[in-house]
Amino acid sequence: MYSALRLALVVVSAFAGGTAPGKHHHVKPPRPANEMGRIPILEYHVIGDSDARWTVERGHFKRQLELLYERGYRPITVAELIDRKIALPAGMSPVVFTFDDASPSQFRYIDHDGTLEIDPNSAIGIWLEFHRTHPDWANKATFCMLPGAAAGHAFFGERGIDGQKTAWRRPKVRFLADQGFELCDHTLWHANLSKYSDEVVQEQIARGAMAIDSAVPGCRVRTFALPLGIWPKNHELARAGSWRDPRSGRVISYRFDAILEVTGGPARSPFDPKFDPLRLPRVEVFGDALERLLDQLDRSGSRYVASGRPTIRDSSTAVGGASNGSSGREH
Question: What's the burial of 263, exposed, middle or buried (CB within 10 Å: 0-12/13-18/19+)?
Answer without folding.
Answer: exposed
